[in-house]
Amino acid sequence: MAIEEIWRQFYSGLLQTSFLEFVAVIAGIVSVWFSKQENILVYPIGLINTIAFIYISIEGHLYGEASVNLYYTIVSVYGWILWSKKDNKHQSATVIEHSNRRQIMAQLVFFSVCYVVIYAALRYLKKDFAPGAIPWADALASASAYTGMWLMARKKVESWYWWIITNISSIPLYFAKGYVFTTFQYLVLLILAVAGLLSWIKKAEANKWKQ
Q1: What angle do CA 13, 165, 110 make, to 5 degrees?
Q2: Of 110 and 209, which is predicted with more confidence?
């Protein structure tokens, strides 16, 4: 596809962006910025994004993404509680750190199970209930996001690797569905995810020396 055609579709889609999608995208970008900063505001602002995208995803037959945003909503509450806990020095009881080998293996298993379940469900639903679904892409974006969100709540550096996968797979997925402004969101989130990864790696190293 030529650059001119991509730009034409982007501009046309931007003009058709709903107010709800606009608010959801802005909230999503701001929440990821706060997560990069290890700021607890990531969760209340993120909830605006996730609740809005549950509706948007269902409307666009992106049922895997809808399930992800429902999961985001639930885990956001969990993460909000976890990040709020303080130790006896009134500092966050959960610190940024790397996953150990056992935890990484568990993450890979968790991702694989999520992918297979979501892919199988979307393949089954596609014919009669979700004709617009793209099972393999939707499952990839969803399973990686499931993994990343859980690790974010636990402040694991590896959460950013999963977010990078989610963002890369979501860019063409939402563009193909006509959600151009949301596509732009995932492009920005991809950049923020790389920045977040580098920032959290430094913080994890600093926390390791404090122990």
Answers
A1: 125
A2: 110
Torsion angles phi and psi, residue 22, rounded to 5: -60, -50
Report the sign of the C-alpha dihedral through residues 77, 139, 14, 186, in that order: positive
Measure the CA–CA gap between 184 and 70, rounded to whole angstroms: 22
Distance CA 108, CA 18 (A): 36
pTM reported for the whole predicted model: 0.82
d(CA 124, CA 138): 14
DSSP string, 74-102: HHHHHHHHHHH-B-TTSSBSS--B---HH
- 115-133 pLDDT, tens digit per residue, is 999 888 888 776 666 666 6
Q: How far apart are CA 161 and CA 151, in angstroms?
A: 10
CA quadruple 96, 152, 157, 42: dihedral sign = negative
| Each residue's pLDDT tens digit, 28-76 | 889 999 998 989 999 999 999 999 989 888 887 777 678 778 988 999 9
Task: With CA atoms as reference, report the closest residue to 63 among 73, 48, 75, 53.
Answer: 53
User: Cβ distance 138 to 122 under 8 Å?
Assistant: yes
